Amino acid sequence: MKWFLYREYDSKLEIDSYILSSCPNPKCENKRIELDKRNMSEDYFFYCENCGEKIYLTDVFRLHEVIDDEFGAGGILAYVTNILEHLLLIHYIRTILKIKPSLMKETLFIKDGPLAFFSVTANMHKPMRDLSNYLLGKYDLNLVGVEKSGPFVEHAAQIKKNMKPGTLLIMSNNYIYKYIIPGRADPNNPYARTSYYGGKLIFKSRDEGLYVVTVPVADEFVVIDPKKENFKNIDSILQNLELLKCDMYDNSLFPVALANKLVSLSAHPSSMILEKFAKSFIKS
Ligand SMILES: [Zn+2]
User: What are the distances in angstroms from CA 105 to CA 91, 141, 254?
Assistant: First the structure.
């Protein structure tokens, strides 16, 4: 997380401090707090200058802003999942760069869902774009987000019969606002500029599989009028998606289907076991 947030992978991109919008501790009104790396403890926390309480590095996700006094913490689950999936991805990238950077060009990373961070966590798309640009420039990055639901997937299903097998549709800002998302296209404000670090495509494989994917692009204004060459390694990424097709579910991919199978828990008894396990670690 520290490596990622402060861009420690590249001396030209590296920063010393990060501005956190508000103190996570209740009753503290401190805003725009500078999290200077040099003041961080070995256990990755800081002290708030106003209230004196701890601020953890993970508070940059701002999850404290969406925990509701009455409805509890349930609302943060989707954000936590997306953050963990990204951190796992970042961890693998960091490990590969440490051990054998040449593996980067041989590896395809598949992310379940779009390449984006939403709501309070949206700021994380900036360090993520920096990391992906750095990798695209210096090593290689084969990263694709595959989404299974939402308006883009519904749109893809509607136009499927009009797409030839083995073709892709690159969606421009005008296309997105004309056919998929309500509202008016604004050239100064491309689709999802404050949350995505990639551009969206619809791909119909030669065996009639249909995929809505995000692939990293250099900056948000590519989305205004994207060209195929803006999506580096796009041919090999799509070719591999086609090869990884899994017939267990509609338009599913082998690694994703296998991972989901392994992590699925039945409500009973697995979740009970997990609950007991968690409670044994939490002191009352
Ligand atoms: Zn504070």
Answer: 16, 6, 20
One-letter amino acid identity for 108? L
Measure 46 CA to ligand 1 centroid, in angstroms: 10
What is the Å distance from ligand 1's center to 95 Cα? 34
CA of 283 to the centre of ligand 1 (A): 25
From first to last of its 284 residues, what are the pLDDT tens digits of the chain?
Answer: 999 999 999 999 999 999 999 999 989 999 999 999 999 999 999 999 999 999 999 999 999 999 888 888 888 999 999 999 999 999 999 999 999 999 999 999 999 899 999 999 999 999 999 999 999 999 999 999 999 899 999 999 999 999 999 999 999 999 999 999 998 888 888 998 999 999 999 999 999 999 999 999 988 888 899 999 999 999 999 999 999 987 777 778 888 788 877 777 777 788 888 889 999 988 76
Nearby residues for ligand 1 (ion, Cβ within 5 Å) = 23, 25, 28, 30, 48, 50-51
Residue 79 Cα to chain centre, angstroms: 10
Contacts by residues 78-86 (CB-CB < 8 Å, ≥ 24 positions apart): 78/118, 79/118, 79/119, 79/120, 79/121, 82/113, 82/117, 82/118, 82/121, 83/117, 83/121, 83/124, 85/111, 85/112, 85/113, 86/111, 86/117, 86/124, 86/128
Closest CA to 213 of 188, 239, 189: 239
Output the pTM of the full model.
Answer: 0.89
